[in-house]
Amino acid sequence: MTKQLKMTGLSGASLKATAVRILTASVLVTGLAGCGHQLGGDTTSGFVATQDVNERHPIEVEKARATLALNVPGNAQGLNVYQKDRVRHFIADWRNYGSGQIVVAGNNRGALLDIRDLLVERRVPIGAVQVVTYGVDQPGVKLSFARYVAEGPKCGKFPTDLGKDPNNAEYENFGCAAQHNLAALVDNPKDLVNPRDQADWSDGDRRDFIFRNWWAGKSTGGDVTEVNKAGTVSDVAKQ
After folding, report:
1. Choosing a second label site near 206 at 20 to 30 A (CA), which of 49, 76, 101, 227?
2. Secondary structure (3-state) at 195
3. Cα 207–Cα 212–Cα 218 angle in degrees, nearest 5
4. CATH 3.30.1330.60 at 53-212, yes or no
């Protein structure tokens, strides 16, 4: 005897609509599964050629000429006080930022003798000075030296829509502003090429000594002699 199964509450049209909904849900699940595979992959819409900001936004460090031109008339006996002061500052800049020799050029004997005296005054080694010929028709004197200059990257590149990057990867402009500001603020761009000599650094032994005393709860100051101690504010206040 054959039994017929009855589905209460579902007509033929309802069965057809239910089947369509099930089929649609199946297609959506399959599509989402494919999307999930894509989200977990390596495909990104951002710029991920390298994760190193120094490679993505390099700072260009090159040598340029720092020049000091002084207008000295041909009949002048030498440099005036203002010009001598400018030469002193220029020598200080060479000592701090220069790379190579100071080049001196001029056709006024008095001015050249004054520059020689200023170089001796600032204890510039004779091997660090180069004197070159100057045209007779060129007035004044000129000093120059090579120094490093830093040029930061140009920022503002957003070739892709950051809101559509499913991997949230670093974008092309990421880190560019920091590199640009570093190039503009660095005191001596030569430090970006190689470190300074150890003679220019602070005394590491003294620093370690101070830290060890501080960790041990001891005084971090130097020894106070009886002569210096007699003049301290604390002792005067007690009287």
Report:
1. 227
2. coil
3. 115
4. yes
